Amino acid sequence: MNNFDDIFVDQKTGETANNKDFVPFNKDEWAARKQQERADAYALIDRAAEDATKDGGVFQGYLDVQSRFDRYSVGNALLITIQMPEATRLADYNGWKDNNVYVKKGATGITILEPGDEYTREDGSVGVWYNAKKVFDISQTNSRQQAAPAVSHDPRLLLKALINNAPCKISISENLPENVYAAYQPQDKVILIRQGMDAPDIFRALSQELAHAHMDRGEYNRADCAFTAYCVSYMLCKRNSIAVDTFRFDRLPEAFKEMDAQGIRAELGKIRDVANEISRDMAPVLEQRKAPSRDDGAR
Q1: In this structure, what DSSP letter does residue 135 have?
Q2: What one-character DSSP code corresponds to residue 71?
Q3: 73 closest CA partner among 38, 134, 115, 110
């Protein structure tokens, strides 16, 4: 019988390869490492939440991130904010590779949490384990397309989308007080909007009042919802390329100072959820595409 062992001899040293560097898989060590990575991620989320409510610039940066990554949880948006707030498009190493895009050598991954297996708590309820993973922004890859093009819609179409499936009536008014461009009136379930405004002003004013209408689910108090609605309007403007230079976040609500990280995340969750509700109502209108005519190709 032929002996093929010589194939596995190092051609430079003449030595046979051995398994002295082989480290057997240790399930307990792996589980401990994963648990530590998860704990570190949660600690980073708490730190990011506290930072955001102490600095208006950081808070606005969080809103920008959550605007771009609308499907991401508040926790993951906070993780992105504290690690790479300028990120625009994320995927893990294999995700980029599957699209023939490769992560640059030495790039530092962004830690986020992704849902894993379900588990049963002591009270019988079902929870989900979250695992820490590394993702990379498109700017950390060799992709030539470094950022998605800005979204732009016809102003009339955009406003039609904004009022689609609105939770209350919307009426033009000539009697709004000075410097009030739109107003939600909970007693009548109607939004009054000033006559004769241009599209960006309408969008900014109306989106804020729509946020109020969405939050009116029983025990509604305008003052309690004012900052949330303001933030929702900002996020919707960012998503739809409406100028946001009139928004200011240099003075954050005093209530944030009394909240722990969990309470802050809950408040941020309200902003995200209302913004996403309105975005979902807008989507059917914005996704409509005009069918091309026979003459389009000759123009």
Answers
A1: E
A2: T
A3: 115
112: closest CA among 94, 88, 138, 91?
A: 91
Integer Cα distance of 183 and 170 in angstroms: 10
Domain edges within the chain: 27-140, 155-286
Per-residue pLDDT tens over the stretch 188-198? 999 999 999 99
Indicate the SS3 state at residue 83: helix
> Contact, 143 vs 136, CB < 8 A?
no
What whole-number distance in Å separates Cα of residue 21 and Cα of residue 23? Answer: 6
> How does pLDDT run across 219-233, given as a tens digit for each residue?
899 999 999 999 999
Helices (H) and strands (E) in the chain, counts: 8, 6
**pLDDT digits over 140-182, tens only?**
999 987 666 667 789 999 999 999 999 999 999 998 999 999 9
Q: Which of 145, 191, 142 is nearest to 166 (CA)?
A: 191
Which pTM was predicted? 0.85
- At 122, give phi and psi (nearest 5°): -60, -30
Task: Look at residue 146 and give its three-state secondary structure.
Answer: coil
In CATH, the number for domain 155-286 is: 3.30.2010
Q: Which amino acid is at 235?
A: M
Read off the DSSP letter of residue 250.
Answer: S
Please list, in sequence order, all residues whose beta carbon lies within 8 angstroms of the beta carbon of residue 253, skipping any fewer than 6 positions away.
227
Task: Record the tokens describing residue 197, joined without a space.
Answer: 């405004």
